[in-house]
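Sequence design from tokenized structure. All designs in this work follow the same two-part layout: the structure record, then the generated sequence. An example of the structure record is given first.
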């Protein structure tokens, strides 16, 4: 892939509605079952969380530890992918999904290519492994989406992960995730040639949205599960809405 630096996109190739972790809470998050259910509800872009196994395989998991969403225990990054692949990542959700496995980024890439769907990859490093995770995930994304018409959007709450991802593959579009508004956020996003700011939805105001748009970046919101909140964000003119409620919001809205 050509390593031209990413820059604010004059043409935004992503849909406004993005399914959180595949299908929000309706299926076990970050599993193939969730992405298939999101597609069933009409979504064509998903958000997912990616971290590294002990042997450096990018795979999907939100938490640093395994207990909440798998039959495993302990820190996920201390297990090899061979060990992680044996875990049940669906039974915690409901009996209907028992036996659903964890998923590699490579497997999800194949699924997205086959369906013509797009992806927002949140770089979710195990604490202390921010830079290495950003670098490896960026290299994997560049390889897996080589030649694709639309590249995945890589986002992270961790500045070190974004810095490492940009240094590794400057062509990949990046977005800065914010759980709270910081005065230095826009300067950092500009320095890293981010194409988007992705905020906890309540943080958006008309003034902040105007600032982001004036810098050529797009404004995305997470995790929007209330119709009133969605209407407010649409009225403000935000560019993307990440939601668990794939059953409530039609992505053609």
């Amino acid at each position: 892939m050509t390593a031209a630096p990413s820059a604010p996109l004059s043409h935004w190739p992503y849909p406004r509605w993005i399914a959180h972790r595949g299908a929000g809470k309706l299926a076990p998050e970050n599993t193939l079952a969730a992405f298939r259910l999101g597609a069933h509800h009409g979504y064509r872009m998903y958000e997912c969380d990616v971290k590294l196994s002990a042997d450096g395989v990018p795979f999907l998991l939100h938490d640093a530890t395994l207990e909440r969403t798998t039959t495993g225990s302990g820190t996920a990054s201390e297990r090899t992918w061979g060990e992680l692949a044996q875990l049940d990542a669906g039974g915690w959700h409901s009996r209907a999904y028992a036996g659903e496995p964890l998923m590699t980024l490579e497997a999800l890439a194949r699924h997205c290519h086959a369906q013509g769907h797009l992806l927002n990859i949140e770089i979710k490093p195990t604490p202390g492994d921010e830079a290495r995770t950003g670098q490896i995930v960026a290299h994997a994304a560049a390889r897996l989406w080589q030649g694709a018409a639309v590249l995945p959007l890589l986002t992270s709450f961790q500045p070190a992960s974004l810095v490492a991802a940009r240094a590794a593959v400057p062509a990949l579009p990046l977005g800065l995730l914010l759980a709270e508004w910081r005065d230095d956020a826009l300067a950092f996003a500009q320095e890293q040639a981010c194409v988007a700011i992705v905020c906890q939805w309540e943080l958006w105001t008309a003034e902040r949205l105007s600032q982001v748009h004036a810098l050529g970046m797009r404004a995305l919101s997470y995790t929007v599960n209330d119709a009133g909140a969605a209407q407010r964000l649409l009225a403000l003119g935000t560019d993307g809405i990440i939601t668990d409620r794939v059953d409530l919001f039609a992505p053609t809205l």
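Helices lie at 32-40, 81-84, 105-115, 130-144, 159-168, 185-191, 206-214, 227-236. We note this feature because it recurs in several other targets discussed in the main text.
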